[in-house]
Each structure stands twice: as C-alpha cells, then as structure tokens.
Design brief:
Order of helices and strands: HHHHHH
Distance between the termini: 65 Å
Number of domains: 1
Number of strands: 0
Low-confidence stretches: 1-31
Structural class: mainly alpha
Largest sheet: none
CATH class: Mainly Alpha
Strand content: under 5%
CATH topology: Phospholipase A2
C-alpha cells in the first residue's frame, strides 16, 4: 500500500509540473517544427552569409541538411569548405535535400549560390598563395572553371 501511495504522489507531482508548464504564460519553445518558413529561410541566409571557414565550424543545427560530398567531381583541396557550404545551399534552398526544405528553388537562388561558391573559392586562393604566383593563378583559374561549369548547367539536377 505504501508503494502505491508513493507512486500516486509521484504521478501527481509529475502531472502538476506538466500542467504548470503547459499553461504558464511566456514564450513557447520554438523548435524546428514550430518555426515559420521565413524564420528558417532567414537562418539559412545567415548561415550562407558566413565565411567558408566560419561555416565549417558552425554547429549542424536542425532543420537543415548538412550533408556534403565536398567538391563532387573536383579534388577538394583548398576548396573543400567552399564546396561544403555550396552543398548546404543546394540541399536546403533547392529541391534535393534530405530535409526537403526547398527554401527557394529558383534560377536566381541557384545563381546566387554558384556566385557565392566562386567568391569563397577565390578567397581560398588568395589566402593560400601569393598573388601573381603560378599556384595562385592556377587556383583562380580552377575556381572560374568550376563556376562557369555550374553556370552552364552542370549539376543543375542537384538543385532543381
């Protein structure tokens, strides 16, 4: 009988606590399921605005798809971080992410993501080699080749 009383009191305590939390005024938990599309888009825009190095060190928060294959068919090298951020963009703004967010599957958004990749790759070149060196020139040329291929439609099926 004593065990029954203890269980009843424990149940009553838990129930009271749950009810109190449910009816207390204040801000509700804004988990991924309750976030508006505009809030999720704003957070994705903020993440895409990070430098490639800040992006790589960012916590992998929901509801985003953080999967990456690096630079896909190009050796990652100094471009890995930029390619990972570009993958984040394609997977969350486009139609092919595992989370199916499809935040903005438009030509304009794809062009923005591709240009962002190009800029981040150029930053990587500038940070790794002296301007005018053969390695720097080669790196910038590779960044342009990748960007031009994306602009010409290579990999388009990974976005739309």
């Amino acid at each position: 009988m004593r065990a029954r009383n203890v269980l009843s009191k424990a149940f009553a305590t838990v129930l009271t606590a749950l009810l109190a939390v449910a009816v207390l005024p204040g801000e509700a938990y804004a988990g991924p399921a309750s976030r508006s599309v505009a809030d999720v888009r704003g957070e994705a825009d903020r993440i895409m605005g990070l430098s490639r190095l800040d992006f790589i060190n960012h916590d992998h928060i929901p509801p985003f798809d953080w999967d990456t294959d690096g630079c896909t068919f190009w050796p990652d090298g100094v471009f890995y971080e930029a390619c990972a951020q570009h993958d984040f963009g394609y997977r969350n703004y486009g139609n092919h992410g595992s989370t199916h967010l499809s935040l903005s599957p438009t030509e304009e958004t794809k062009a923005w993501l591709d240009e962002r990749l190009h800029n981040q790759m150029r930053f990587a070149c500038n940070e790794n080699w002296p301007a005018g060196s053969a390695s720097h020139t080669s790196c910038l040329a590779q960044a342009t080749i990748i960007h031009d291929a994306l602009s010409a439609g290579i990999g388009k099926e990974n976005f739309f």
